[in-house]
Amino acid sequence: DQQVKQNSPSLSVQEGRISILNCDYTNSMFDYFLWYKKYPAEGPTFLISISSIKDKNEDGRFTVFLNKSAKHLSLHIVPSQPGDSAVYFCAASDRWDDKIIFGKGTRLHILP
Amino acid sequence: DAGVTQSPTHLIKTRGQQVTLRCSPKSGHDTVSWYQQALGQGPQFIFQYYEEEERQRGNFPDRFSGHQFPNYSSELNVNALLLGDSALYLCASSPPKNTGELFFGEGSRLTVL
Question: B107: closest CA among B94, B91, B84, B86?
Fold first, then answer.
């Protein structure tokens, strides 16, 4: 039973444009949401997070939006750069110190 | 400042064998979590260790066991290996007063033949 779903296995975006990665979740107890980025042969690295008391969190080119009623979150990257090409994992947990549940990931290709 | 280090990076075992994977957390971190990432999948939570005790466990059989040492380093043991255990095993550490962010190692790639 997949509690965190990333329905797009891959996404291609032109350099300089906006990349939007989507994520849905089923567990209404999730209170904390994170995005991780993974390059080949490296472990995932933390990108940005949001708690359920907010609907938006911004960090430089990265913004995460949370819609709790729809159980949906999205990651916006503006503008997209070649170094953004990676696999992006959406993740969630019941509380900040609980186990983190990951989605299957979306592979983002930034086209020159 | 060394990050999370894992060993070995790659290993090959045969069905029925046992394997031990090792992890040293980032300096200052006291909690270690282990994840299994199969090909094309996201990381799946195996268990988490804190104060040398298993604090939480995911949906993995008892063949998967672990240990945390007083210096916070950790081991993951898998007994009676199956072909389906072939995966990338990721160790992640987190600090006291955790903000929810995990720091991952590069992983140990296990192939079971």
Answer: B91
Phi first, then psi: what are they for B85, rounded to 5°? -80, -5
**CB B103 within 8 Å of CB B94:** yes
CA-based nearest distance A27→chain B, Å: 16
Q: Which fold has domain A4-111?
A: Immunoglobulin-like (2.60.40)
Write down the domain spans for chain A. 4-111
User: pLDDT tens, A27-44?
Assistant: 999 999 999 999 998 999
pLDDT digits (tens, 9 = 90+) for B40-67: 899 999 999 999 999 999 999 999 999 9
Out of B41, B45, B104, name the one closest to residue A44 (CB): B104
Partner-chain contact A99 B48, CB within 8 Å: yes
